[in-house]
Every structure is written in C-alpha cells, then in structure tokens.
C-alpha cells in the first residue's frame, strides 16, 4: 500500500531511507536546510524542499501535518535533531523516528517524544562484529536480551539429513521456523524435510544455543 513519509535531513542516512521508500512506490517528502542537498536528491523523492526543521512555521508551511510518519535523520547537529522531534510531536505527528549519535542523545530524543530512536552506526557495528565472529550467521533479529532469530548457513556436516535426524530441538534447544533453499522458502518445514547444501535455516532460540549451532562446521 502506498504511504506518505517525510524525511528530514538528506545526508547519507536520510537520503538512503528516502530513496528506498520512494523506489518502493511511496510518496516521500525530503526536507533539508541545505539547498545543495535538496537539489542533489530532488529526483530521488516525490518532492524535495528547503526548510529548517527546528522552526515550527517552516514545517507547517511545507505541509508536514499531512504526514503520519516523519523520520528525523539529522545527526551531527544534536540540538537541531532534538528540536525537530519536539516540534513534530507538538504538531501532532503520529510516528516520529529519529537517528541518535549516542545513548545520551537517544535518551533525550525519547524524552521529547520520539516514538522510535535508531542508532545506525552502533547497530551496523554490532552486525559486522557478529558476522565476523560467526560467518555462518547471515542475519539476525534480537527478540529480547538473550533470545534471537538467526539465518544460519547449514554446516556441511548436516547436509543430506532430514530435520528429524538433525533434531536441533533436542541437541541445541533450537526451533527451525523456515528453510531458505536457494530462494524457495519453506515455512514451518516438516520433520522429513531434507537439508541440502547452501540451505539457510531460520532458527529461533537462546543466543548461547544459537552460537553453539552457528559455529559448527
Ligand atoms: P549522514 O551521516 O547521514 O551522512 P551528515 O554527516 O551529512 O549525515 P548530519 O549532521 O547528520 O550530517 O545531517 C544530515 C542532514 O541534515 C544534512 O544534509 C543537513 O544539512 C541536514 N540538517 C541539519 N540541520 C537541519 C535542520 N535544522 N533542518 C533541516 N535539515 C537539517
């Protein structure tokens, strides 16, 4: 479904969010205080305008109140990012997502009303480190402090066996929720499903069990 988004700050982070949303068919308003940035990204969004997002009147003038979701992708100017979130929440924007540079910045953004704060550098750093330590883990979602869902490349020693034979539930306390077999996704696979080379298992469980499994060869 086509949705409307506004992205404030067209740096690397903001422009990447804006163009991804736009390419997926959504209506995207891009806002930046810097005219050159607006000029550079005008073809990657539906509309691009110059405005200072710390000024309520400027945001009203560009019709920000028509948007349910606004992303504040200003980072370095911490004061500007906090003020922008404050103004947007005061204007009644339902969902405000903001980028934080560090933990303190994030806490303040939540205090002034941000609905979701993202830490792109910290999160990407964690992902890279995880991948370096466990190259078989292609991606993961942290569900709670100790639990995750991971996409794990099957170790060679497991190919040619069925899920029942592998019995990951008994051996690792893990559940296989899907198998990606060269692009064919099997959701809730049956116990008789055979594991082939290059298959990717989507498994859920405790982080320490996932780690034991992902480090098998
Ligand atoms: P990135 O890390 O995403 O590349 P950056 O290093 O270019 O960002 P940031 O300080 O995070 O720099 O700013 C992102 C964008 O936000 C810049 O293009 C900047 O012009 C814009 N910006 C900064 N302050 C405001 C403001 N008050 N109103 C609107 N846009 C702003």
Automatic annotation (TrEMBL):
In what residue span(s) does the RCK N-terminal domain sit? 2-119
Pfam families listed in its UniProt record: TrkA_C, TrkA_N
Q: Start and end of every RCK C-terminal domain?
A: 135-217
Q: Record's InterPro entries?
A: NAD(P)-bd_dom_sf (IPR036291), RCK_C (IPR006037), RCK_C_sf (IPR036721), RCK_N (IPR003148), Trk_Ktr_HKT_K-transport (IPR050721)
Which is one GO molecular function term here? monoatomic cation transmembrane transporter activity
Source taxon at top rank: Bacteria
* Signal sequence residues: none
Q: Per the UniProt entry, what is one GO biological process?
A: potassium ion transport
Q: What PANTHER family does its record include?
A: KTR SYSTEM POTASSIUM UPTAKE PROTEIN C, POTASSIUM CHANNEL PROTEIN 2-RELATED-RELATED
Q: What is this protein called?
A: Trk system potassium uptake protein TrkA
Source organism per UniProt: Thermolongibacillus altinsuensis
């Amino acid at each position: 479904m086509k949705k409307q988004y506004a992205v404030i700050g067209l740096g690397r982070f903001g422009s990447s969010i804006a163009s991804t949303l736009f390419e997926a068919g959504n209506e995207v308003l891009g806002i930046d205080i810097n005219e050159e940035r607006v000029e550079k990204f005008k073809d990657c969004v539906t509309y691009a305008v110059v405005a200072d997002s710390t000024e309520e009147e400027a945001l009203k003038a560009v019709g920000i109140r028509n948007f349910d979701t606004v992303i504040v992708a200003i980072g370095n100017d911490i004061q500007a990012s906090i003020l922008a979130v404050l103004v947007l929440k005061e204007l009644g924007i339902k969902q405000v997502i903001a980028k934080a540079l560090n933990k303190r910045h994030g806490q303040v953004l939540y205090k002034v009303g941000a609905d979701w704060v993202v830490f792109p550098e910290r999160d990407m750093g964690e992902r890279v480190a995880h991948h370096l330590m466990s190259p078989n883990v292609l991606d993961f979602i942290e569900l709670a402090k100790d639990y995750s869902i991971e996409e794990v490349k099957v170790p060679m020693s497991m190919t040619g066996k069925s899920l029942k034979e592998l019995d990951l539930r008994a051996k690792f306390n893990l559940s296989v929720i899907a198998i990606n077999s060269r692009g064919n996704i099997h959701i809730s696979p049956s116990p008789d499903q055979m594991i082939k080379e290059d298959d990717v298992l989507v498994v859920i469980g405790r982080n320490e069990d996932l780690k034991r499994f992902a480090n098998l060869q």
